[in-house]
Amino acid sequence: MPWLQLKIDSSAEQAEQIGNMLSANGAQAVTFVDAKDTPMYEPKPGEVMLWPDTQVVGLFDASDDMPSIINNLQKAKVLGKDFNYRLEPLEDKDWEREWMENFHPMQFGSRLWICPSWREVPDPDAVNVMLDPGLAFGTGTHPTTALCLKWLDGIDVEDKVVVDFGCGSGILALAALKLGAKKVIGIDIDPQALQASMENASRNNVADRLKVYLPDDQPSLKADIVMANILSGPLIELQDTITDYCKKGGSLVLSGILAEQIAKIEAAYAKDITLDPSVIEGEWARVSGIKI
């Protein structure tokens, strides 16, 4: 199906109102795009953060009556008769198939491979995690996940109890299980993430060793290894909770951290963790250590 994109430059204050107007006029989807390459790293849970110069993009069916839609928008006070817009065709593609074709097997460390569930594994003798992310975060392509996977590949996971705090697609939990972990507890605020984790666990024949929970239902336990690949704000706010999952002498790894945020994370965790040297990949970082 061919599509049209209606692009309107806006301010952060007006963007949501314009987005609602586009939806009311038949837009199939509305997205907010940074119009001037302004960094915006960390919205809090439930918070919508927009750039000072925000572009609002409405996606319309090419058969829609765009002159009538634009005329409707011109009548709105927030835009006015002479508002600037661009109407552009969007290439008709099977976007899901295109994404699938560009998700390739990836190696992390010496033993571990993350493989799309629809592709052949390149090394049958390796530790292969078969992954279909679904709607949850985590394919291994983002540096934060890659940093954690490389760390996991480099430690002894055999027969360990592991907590994956913010499990997303379950990629870190599955990697730990395929590397020999006895049991993994996955925790996430998103029910779709828990569903994706369990589906991927079944795909990898390790569902019997993975248990997933929403934060309010999470059990009390002490784990040998605790992983939290989220964002620096929640890492700091939830420091006591995350650290408390780790038993004395256990290992802890944190990611989702920008390089310039390392000092804050280390300051928050140093009272409970003997810290390893932090590792940086691009603009992202990993912090790890041993529970005191």
Automatic annotation (TrEMBL):
Enzyme class: transferase
Biological process according to GO: methylation
Single annotated GO MF: methyltransferase activity
Catalytic activity: L-lysyl-[protein] + 3 S-adenosyl-L-methionine = N(6),N(6),N(6)-trimethyl-L-lysyl-[protein] + 3 S-adenosyl-L-homocysteine + 3 H(+)
Chief place where the protein resides: cytoplasm
Family to which the UniProt record says this protein belongs: Belongs to the methyltransferase superfamily. PrmA family.
Key word Glycoprotein present: no
Gene3D superfamilies the record matches: Vaccinia Virus protein VP39 (3.40.50.150)
Binding site for S-adenosyl-L-methionine: 145, 166, 188, 229
Biological role stated in the UniProt entry: Methylates ribosomal protein L11.
GO CC field: ribosome
Source species, domain of life: Bacteria
Matching NCBIfam families: prmA (TIGR00406)
Listed EC numbers: 2.1.1.-
Record Pfam families: PrmA (PF06325)
CDD domains: AdoMet_MTases
Name used for this protein in its record: Ribosomal protein L11 methyltransferase
Subcellular location: Cytoplasm
Keywords: Cytoplasm, Methyltransferase, Ribonucleoprotein, Ribosomal protein, S-adenosyl-L-methionine, Transferase
